[in-house]
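Notes from hallway chat w/ T.B., transcribed later so I don't forget. T.B. wanted the structure written out for a chain they're using in a teaching module, and asked if we could keep both sequence and structure tokens in one place. Agreed to drop them here.
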Amino acid sequence: MKIALIDYGAGNLFSVQRALKFVGADYYLATRPEQILTADKLILPGVGAFADGMANLKKNQLDQAIKTAVLNNKKPILGICLGMQLMMTEGLEFGRTQGLNLIPGLVNKINTQAKLPQIGWNNIKINSSSPLLTGLKTGDYFYFVHSYVVRPKNNQVIAATTSYGQDVFCSVISYNQVYGTQFHPEKSGNKGLKIYQNFVRNVRPAAGG
């Protein structure tokens, strides 16, 4: 199955590409809508500000292609860090910005008196089973770099949580064909590679998609 790694100018994709090659993924860089629509699965990476990320997606109509592929054609998508945040309804970083609305909810700052951004290793607590988390367990550590987090309206989409300071936030989303991680799997050693391997091998497009 061909995977479109969406390149919209939000960060260096080298580490993600290296991880995908390591797990044997059949992927290509997608910079145009048609490259998104013809893929079997999508990966939306990214670092930086929510508004900038959405502006970059809209610039080449990639936002509409993603919504069509995921919501209409039921293609699986994996959002990484900012990529997961962009899948929400709205971001509250530097004002209000509309997101892709693949998952109802918003993005706001971590509610903590601890130092921001959170940079470094932290563990997850698995709330529900997901094909993305096969072979992983509560207590496994992953690498985080962020000040903002997703707040889904429906707690059932939250596959894992992470604690930082006073806040317990969603660190993994798994709902129908939509998946996401707040951490960077490509910077998280063997556990992170397992995330990519699971997305490549275990996640399937919906029937008829």
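Follow-up for T.B.: Residues 31 and 71 are 20 Å apart (CA to CA). Might be a good example for the class.
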